[in-house]
């Protein structure tokens, strides 16, 4: 299908990562995989929104490589490993907190993808650090449509636990609703953090791959902290 934007090596890497996530997630492995699959599909869809305009402005990225897969998938995979360790070797009570961190991480990379792909369809971006107007495509720039799109992307992933609400409510109880709120906030923070890192990209510090990775980490950390605050163990 046209919106599947990974090249062959990246596809193989994504499949391997997906299998690993399913295994590490145990009873929740299929949900973990579902969240990552939704990110992949939604990313492909928004990549093609406004394609003609993006091509005209040379902002259209047709193919993603293994580096994209690693940048976006490394943090969720690491969290899935923590989930496996926690539920198998330590107290399962912490599982819901790690689960929130996982959803927050995926919400962050999805939010960033929505923000960057749809934000370029708006007017001139503004850098979050300098608050100066910059050209479209410059790292660190944000627009109103981009921010609203980022919130939408975060929301679409954050509500995915409700797709398997029965299983999660039996395991985690009503706390699953707090997971949704924590992931929503963490995901949106992730795209803001990515924009902040983008400012330093323009200064020669880091690149889009490191920014994507640390944005996913930031989303997971914020989601985890909010979950710790909201969910009694």
What features would you describe in this structure?
- This protein is mainly α.
- It has one domain (8-230): Orthogonal Bundle (Tetracycline Repressor, domain 2).
- The protein is built from 9 helices and 2 strands.
- It has helices spanning 8-25, 29-47, 51-56, 66-89, 95-119, 144-158, 165-172, 175-201, 208-230; strands spanning 126-127, 141-142.
- Strands 1-2 form a two-stranded antiparallel ribbon.
- Helix 4 packs antiparallel against helix 5.
- The relative contact order is 0.15.
- The mean pLDDT is 88.
Question: TL;DR?
Answer:
Helix content is 71%, strand content 2%. By secondary structure, it is mainly α.
Features:
233 residues; 9 helices; two-stranded antiparallel sheet; mainly alpha; globular; 2% strand; Tetracycline Repressor, domain 2
